[in-house]
Task: structure prediction
Amino acid sequence: MSLMDTIERGWNGLKRGWNGLIGTRHIKGSRKGTANYSYLNARVKGMKGHLFPKETYPRLMNMEIDQIARYIQESSYKEDIDQLAQSYESADLVEHALNRNLAVSFTKLINISEDEPKYLITEYLRKFDVWNIKTILRGKHVGASSAEIKENLVSAGEYTYTFLSGLAGKESTDEVIEAFSESYYYQILKQFDGTNLSDIENMLDKMYYEHLYQSIYETRTKEFKLFLRFVQTEIDVRNLLTLFRTKKENLAEDEIMEMMIDNGNVFEMDDLKKLVSLSYEEFIDELKRYSLWDKISDCCSIEMSSLIAMETSLKKYSLTYARQFSHANPLSIATIMDYIITKNNEVNNLRIIVRGKSAGLSDEIIRNQLVI
Amino acid sequence: MGATEVKPTRSELIEIKKKIKLSESGHKLLKMKRDGLILEFFEILNQAKDVRSELDAAYEEANTKIGIAKAVEGTISVKSTAFALSDEPDIELESNNIMGVVVPKIKSTSVSKPMNKRGYGILGTSSYIDEAAEAYEILVEKIILAAEIETTIKKLLDDIEKTKRRVNALEFKVIPELTESMTFIKLRLEEMERENTFRLKKIKDKAE
Result:
């Protein structure tokens, strides 16, 4: 069965409905309904006010890890640090507190929203569900302990921590897969034969984007259209990164095409097919014709040995895009998406500083990874 | 064995002469082996220096890359991705012979893998993870190479030391002692011959 067939079947499975799915957060969001964007935007604006301003990062760069922990303890991360201080210390404490705070913030976002925005936010945050499923599957596959797997879960999506940690305690991958038999992930998960984990992971990630696009595309209200553009941009960035990584590795064309996500804005399927068929040098040359080239041109060349600078540039672009999108469309889903991206970015930046210092990376390397 | 402890007989003299001849040829051969091993050692030493500096560089690079991956993607992400890598590299041990010294030859397979064979999905990961994984693959390869060369060096050094001790023992102990014994026997035999001649003369005098 090809990847497309599997995704198609999975998508059909989803259409049959989510109702009654064990372990989910009882989300009642729907595509239709009166969405009070003004109220939600006011709440999100309040939440955004708790985010660190960009001037904070240079200050944090001059602090030790424990000082950083103390600093963020005096902000919205207080409860997370207080809760986890007994179990972790130093960089581990900060990282787990950041992840906990991210999960709590996104869950709060789902809880305070209703109808249309709730539906959109939930659909978007399913990426954490996919992440958790992959983590549990990987852990069970290599025989990691239940505690190890639980440590790596971030329950910011639809599945609750209780449900996910219950899965981490299952005996085998088969039992984990069976627990998803009512979900649309099952169509993909049941193909796991113990040797094709990377294929399953790719299928799950691809299905997430395809499903996200489809679920938005079918309802053509103004908000959905705005959200659609946002998702399309994310698909473009994801496709571009995959293209760079796979072309550099010289993978076979059909293998790369299997990983390409349809429905991007800049790269349509024909563009992707053309780019995939080119050699690495021709591919970079051809990219100059596309608008995304401007965002990566200063760090992208045929001779580049590392893709890290390019990936960081694309992250910066995603952040800038979300911000501009939010300014251009106030009191809409764009503001909420901007918060999600910015919050995620804040957590990433804090982690980069703390983990970078803990790994003994130079200030310059740490600064280059920050997306401000 | 002290020179005076040997029996001053002709057969013993012949035996000692044989031993001296054997010791001298052994000494010559061991000296040649020692010199050969030293030459081999210096050749491998240069390789070992290169491999060690490459290993240090690879370790530094791998540490930086994993540091960046942990910082940007999070330890959780790196750990979770590492769960996916269940294949261990195959290491085969063979032996090589350098002038009688058995040294290991390590063959490794499936250390460096293409990105799509590393076990983790490409869509859900990033180039930070790829580069950390690649840096560690290079590091493992360098460790295997360094293990082979440094074990060879260690074995060569052990054998050079052993051969040197044997050469010295032959040169400064065994051969001089044998030569001393030979001289002692020769002198004793000559003396015995003189005594015999004297005795014969005495007997002849008495008989006359």
